[in-house]
Amino acid sequence: MIGILARKLPLALITLLVLSLVVFFGGQLLPGDVGRSVLGPLADAGAVAAFNHSVGVDRPVITQYLDWIGHFVVGDMGTSYTFQAPVAPLVLSALGNSLKLAGLAFAMIVPLGILGGVVAALNVGRWADRTILVVGQSLGVVPEFISSIVLILVFGVWLRWLPMSADWPEGAGALTQIYYLILPALPLVIIFFGYMARVTRTGMVEALDADYTRTAVLKGLSWPTVLRRHVLRNALVSPITVSASLVGYLAGGLVVVETLFHYRGIGSVIYTAARQKDFPMLEAGVLLIGALYTVAAIVGDLLIAALNPRLRAEVSA
Amino acid sequence: MKPFWRHDKFRAALRSPSLMLGVVIVVFWVVCAIFGARLAPMDPYADNLLATLSPPSAAHWFGTDQLGRDIFSRVIVGARDILTAGLMATLLGTVLGTALGLALGYIGGVFDSVVSRIIEALQALPLVIVALMALAAVGTSNLTVILVIGFVFTPLIARTVRSAVREEAALDYVAASHLRGDRALSVMIVEILPNVMPLVLVEMTVRLGFAIFFVASLSFLGFGIQPPSADWGLAIAENYSLIGSYWWTVIFDAAATASLVIGFNLAAEGVQGLFEQ
Fold first, then answer.
1. Domain ranges in chain B?
2. What percent of chain B has pLDDT over 90?
3. Which of A112, A239, A246, B1 has the fewest other C-beta atoms within 10 Å?
4. CATH number, span B18-25+69-270
């Protein structure tokens, strides 16, 4: 375990360094004249220069980067142009909200995807298998805002089962919050169900075909026991590791879903910051997402090693 | 050489129902994109303030929007911008990505390790977020959307091409070309490129579906295709607040978008299957 961490951490740090350079490039160099971009084409040159000076983008590029990243790693993410307030508390509370939404989505994706994959694998080649694969695959390519619209129409407008937006009443308890988050979580479930089912199916088919499964059957174990003890235990390694990497991809869907359901999470913060050209906010949001993905990838690697001792050597290589 | 319709792969394609369904859907929308203005029963841009938000009827099959414009006609012509943007972005990404992948795989060494690491780091960011950031920085227009999606695809395609090129570069025909004294550029383009071309084409069909996905999502977020286009994502963004009472203002655009991405996906999946056989 320690060995894996020792090999993966330096790589992750390099990834984060490159990522921070990319984000810096996108937020502070690509816009060219930041003041002009923020204040618009009608602002006079003096105001633009004053703005640039006040936020420090008239300094040399290297100084700007070191200043920005130096403060970032100790938790100072700069000052929002829009709110004239520190970025860190705004972004972190939004991240907390997003984790609630992503957590709920996750709690549905994993069991549903695994169930779909297991059912498909037990019926390889038959209609149940093909239906799960084709439906899962097709749902996985439909943009989240489309599935959201359909879900809102069905469950919010026609059936009136679920609230259409995620802003719950002040002081709502955990269960009420979950109730308000079900509809926003469903588009995320829909988009990843097929992927999860497919990965599970592949693992299952392999395990069902393996010699140890045949041995278990031939030595007289009952089929449910074989499934539980031998097949599932081996087959579930890949879906579990895949779920770690989903954490990062979920963030892309969060931008659309949170905007659509009026939920103040990291995705809607990134969206609003992009709209208002609030570059410090945008940079902080994007870099946090990247960091989260990098951490999730390491957790995934550690999970593989914990679940399957044979793979430990491969992971650390 | 056999004509293409007697080719085994073409015959296999005809026997794959999901591939055929995908092709039919895509062809349908391509026809709408090209001849939309002539196929639409009404002027998709004409306001009619006497018939705003009217439900589907014999006169307006899909109803009318806030300005009284015929939604059926708008859905038909709406195919054009998303298909154009998706196709252009994919072409750009494929050309740049193939060039970069060829260079990475063939030259190798420090250049390859450095660029590969940058590409890997970029994968930590969801594409929609990278695109949002770039579009906020350079400003949104129909052209910048194409450029941004093309650039975002470049490293992804380069990665696939790179690993194929590395395999090819180790083969005898490349060594033979070197011994003949061919220059590096000609080895890459004349010898290696034709051999990785099938892979590039498969990658391109897969990417096309993703490109449509991103153009639609970005248009919905206001960072994609700009008004007054009849684009579907744009229409949904404009009418989304009316969803409670006027479902027809969003549902047909949603169905059109869903059918297009699913059609591309079924087609890409089928094409991939044919090449793997």
1. 18-25+69-270
2. 45
3. B1
4. 1.10.3720.10
